[in-house]
Structure formats: structure tokens, C-alpha cells
Specification:
- The protein is of the alpha/beta class.
- It is built from 17 helices and 20 strands.
- The strands form 8 sheets. It has a 4-stranded parallel beta sheet.
- The protein is globular.
- The C terminus is likely disordered.
Amino acid sequence: MKKRDLRKFVKIIAVITCLLVNIPAMGQDMLVATKPEALAFKLQHEKIDMRIGYPALVDLQGKQPGLTLHDDDDDDFEIVISPEWASDPVKKPSVVKVQKWRTSRWREYQTITVDHLKEYKEKPVKTCKYGGRLDTQEKATGFFYTKKVNGAWTLVDPCGHHYISMSVNSISPNDRNPDSKAAFKEKFGNKKNWTVKTAALLKEKLHLNSLGCWSSWELFKEAGAPTPYFRRWNVMARYAKEKNLTYKKYGHTGFENNVIPVFDPEFPVFCDKLFQNMKETKDDPYLIGHFSDNELPLKEKDIIKRHLECGEKSSSAQRAKSWLKERGKTVNDITEKDDREFCKLVISTYYRIVSEKMKKYDPNHLFVGTRFHGGVLKASVTYEACGPYVDVVSMNYYHRWSPEQDLLDERAVLSGKPLLITEWYAKGVDGGLPLTAGAGFAVHTQKERGMFYENYTLGLLKNKNVLGWHWHRYIDDGPKHRKENASNKGFLDIRFNEWEELTNSVQKINKQVYSLRDYLLTLKSDNFPDKPRQPNSEQ
């Protein structure tokens, strides 16, 4: 060893000795952890880099200093003792291998669970029959509404208590589903037994407090197990179907030219007639709100041309022509700004008509939008246009391992309304079903699905604009019913058995959701993965 390198090595030993002498608690753990994988010396050319790996500094009885030292007298010498998470209230994240798209490579993503919150301690919070927290009190109106309290949006339940909507979509018996009907008959026998047992699972085990979209809310009322719920109307999908302007598409209704015929003079009349059916639940305190449609094609790119291609006599084409004429433009002059402005007209027209007709027949409940997705979800114009008419902005928020705090904040500001996350999920390789269908992530195990649930919901709880979340879906899509689109999306398999490593994480989050919310709203941590991070590696 060269004299120069020997001098550097002596300095390293001196630093370690200093740490051991002056930080007893830390030193004790370091002595235990002085293994190659935890404490590494690197000697290379003119530089020695010493790094103490994260395992050496885990859970040091609350004493977790980080330290970076530089030798200012020797430019080629550096000592680094800096576990990035050492002094942070969040432990170093776990890593989960994820496939974002069915044709993409598997990548590693950092993942936070409840166990990573080093300073967090659960504080029991009692809840009322609706699931709202009893230690809060706002005005009791007898219905759900939204309110901003201390800068954070919240749902308020009929009794006036703060409420976070935790749910799963498509909670229904599946008694006619070819994949599940035999298991249904064996386990439940009839719909009432299914409802009673399912209500117990949802409320007592999983601590879910509402029924998501496409759920059989009527059965829960009939069985004496009323649960807060949402209704869906598919108003534009129904109207366009009557006009032969739709086609079958996986995940949502397809519209010709990706155009909704919102400028048809008959559309407001159709809404008025359909929404008269709201009278049956207008006075129901358990109803949270109404979805008017699901994943409408509201992309701004080429939206004017798509309207012009709908047929010369169609109201869609006529409105696009008149809009261009008003601005002295032709089809050859259309700019991105024009598409954006026309898209805003389309969205605002739809939301204005639907909101007016909906509130005419049900002024008591929330209008929770159309479950924006994909490119529509990303566009600013989406939120600017719907904001004046909607009570809650619903987002089918896929392709994000961790919620983007800045994006969520921006969307709430643009719309002036709170957000509800209405679809998201991960599917597991060990679920035994194809991974080709659906927008959710693919992971290898059910445990990793659970880790995703924790990571994602902790990020949502950290955001002041989010009212809750609805996982998609209650039960897996089986191969007999969905064929090539079968997928491991559910909390349960096709025989109504829990995916327990997933549902254990669901339970862990949901049973202490209000305690976690209080903690996370005050947590300031640069290392909390509140933005999507670049993958650590590829396989």
C-alpha cells in the first residue's frame, strides 16, 4: 500500500473511532453491522470512498444521524458516511419489481409501507355508523358534502363528521358469472347470505366504509346492512347508444370518432328524463353522490377535426363548423390552441347540462363527475372546464406507482374542487391469470400487491386535496367470463377467497386511516416518495 493510501486509510479508521466513542448508541449498532454488505471500504486509484450501508443504521432507538465528511486538504480524498434515510422520519423504501405496460420491461420502484414510518404511532379514532370520525364535528346536514378545513379538503358525513371514502369497485354477487357461480352457490346459497357475509368482510375485516362504482348497493340496504354508496348513470353512453353512435370496447364505452354528441338538442331532454329516476334515492343519507359517466373520450388532440368527420348533418360537425366560422378559420388553420378551446367547450357543455338536470332532481347529493382517465386526466383544460359544475373531480389514476403530489395539487387548483381516486390496482403473477388486460401494474406476488396498496394510499393521505380511493375491483376477472381479458385485479379470487397478503395490507391502512391522515398531513420529508421516482434498475 502506498504511503498516501495508508494515510487515507488511517483517516477512515479515525473517523470510525470518533463515531464509536462519541455516539455510543450508534456505535453499538455499527459494531454489530460491520459486515461486508453493511460496511464497505473501497480503495481505487487516488480515491477511497467509504460508505456505511443502510443495514448498519436501522432503528437505532430513534438516534439515526447521517454524516458526510470531506478532506478539504486533499482534493482526491473523500469519506462518506451518509445513509440517505438516516435522519429522516421515513425509513429507506423497499424495492418492488414492477411491469408498467404488458410489453415493457420489469423495473424496480421504491415503495413505502406503514412499517417504514419510523416516528408514527397509531392513535385510535372512533367512527360513527357512516364511517366518519367521531372526534370531528361540522354542520350536520343529513347528507354527505365536502368542506375545506385547515387547508385540507374532506368529505363530511350526514352527522357532520370528517370522512374518507375507502372502497372497492364492482361489489356484486357474481352469481351469474360462469367463473364464480358454482362457488357462490357453495359458499353463500343466495344473495342475502352473500350480502351479510360480504358486509362483514368489508366493514369488520377490511375496514372499507363505502361501495364503489358498479356495486349492488340495493342488496346491502335490503339485507339491513346499509353502507355509503355511489350511483352511476352512464347518461352520455346511454344517449349515444340510442343514436347508434357507440361500439363495444374493453373498459368503457367506445364512441364513433371519439366524439360525444353533447351538442344534440335532444341530449338535455334525455338527461331530464333519465334523472327523474333519482327520486328513489334523493333523500337517502347513505348515498354519497352520482357518477354521470365513465371515462368519456375528451382528449383535445384533433378534437375539432373529429367533430367535423361525424357527418355533415350531425350536430357535432355543425357546431365545429360554426365555431371555426366565428373565429374566421378553416379546417386548414386549426391550431393546438383551437383544439384546446373547443375541447373546453365540449367538456363544459356536457358538465353544465348534466349538472343542471341532476341538481334539479337531486339537490342533496354530490355530482362526482365522469372518472377521468388517460390523456384526459393529464390535460389542464379538463379541470378548468368541469370545475364550475362538479362537486368532486373523479380520477381513474393509473400508471403511477406513487401519487404525484404536484399534479394532484394543480388539478385541485384548476378545478377548485377536491379529488376522488376512483380506479387503480396491481395484478400479481402468482394470481395464475394473464397479465395482458387492464391498466394496472403487474407485480410478482400478492404481498407486493399489498405493498402497492400501502404505498399508494399513504401518498394519497399525504395530499390535502384527496377525499379517498376506490380500488378496482372486488373479485378477479375470470377466464370463462373475460376470456383473454381475465386478470388478477380483485381483493378476492374467482372462488371468493381472499388474497390475504393483499387484504392484510388493506386492513393495515384502513383500520388506522384517520390516524395516518393526521400524521401524514404534518409530515415534512424530502424522502417520502410523493413523486414518481426513476426506476433503480432494469431486469
